[in-house]
Amino acid sequence: MNGKILTISAHPDDWELGCAGTIERLKREGCECNHAVLGLGRGDETDNKFDSLPLLHWVGQVELHIAIHRPDIILTHYAHDLNIDHRITYQAVITAARPLPDYCVREIYSFEVLSSTEWSDIPFRPDMFVALTLDDMETKEKILRDGYDSEMRDMPHARSYQAVESLAMVRGMTVGEKYAEAFKTVRRII
Predict the structure, then answer these.
(1) 59 within a domain of the structure (yes/no)
(2) Is the pTM of this model over 0.85?
(3) For position 1, what pLDDT does the model report?
(4) Of 114, 113, 110, 133, nearest to 179 (Cα)?
(5) Domain-located, residue 63
(6) Mean pLDDT over residues 125-134, rounded?
């Protein structure tokens, strides 16, 4: 991956859970990385109620972020996550990022969010992996501890620090690495 990266997530901790290690690696490699979070999370009147507003509301929010950041690559939710806010965010991204003659987001990938993606009735089958270093994983954990410790749970909950590391290890083993984050390709124009 290279170029301008934009993560678009429903809640404040989603991109961190799904791709913070990848973002750390890409920043280290010189990519410009920006984040758009559509909802405020707990306490927000729309938390887990994105469906109470029309899809066009969310499409407009995503279009605004795309216009501001002009990304080459978008990282967002999996289309079939259990969480309705994640599914609506995905739909808004796909709608807002329709290719146009004067500008096109060249690549879109879905990330997985523990405690939502694994519960989908349509399994997440990643086809792109980003190898991570121990430093990337430590930075990811620090981001989660500093901003979202209250959202994390004890093992064996899927949203535990141990589960986050275990998933990165499984994704890494899949491709012969110690750690990795996995993605599902939605669009890739070469």
Answers:
(1) yes
(2) yes
(3) 78
(4) 133
(5) yes
(6) 98
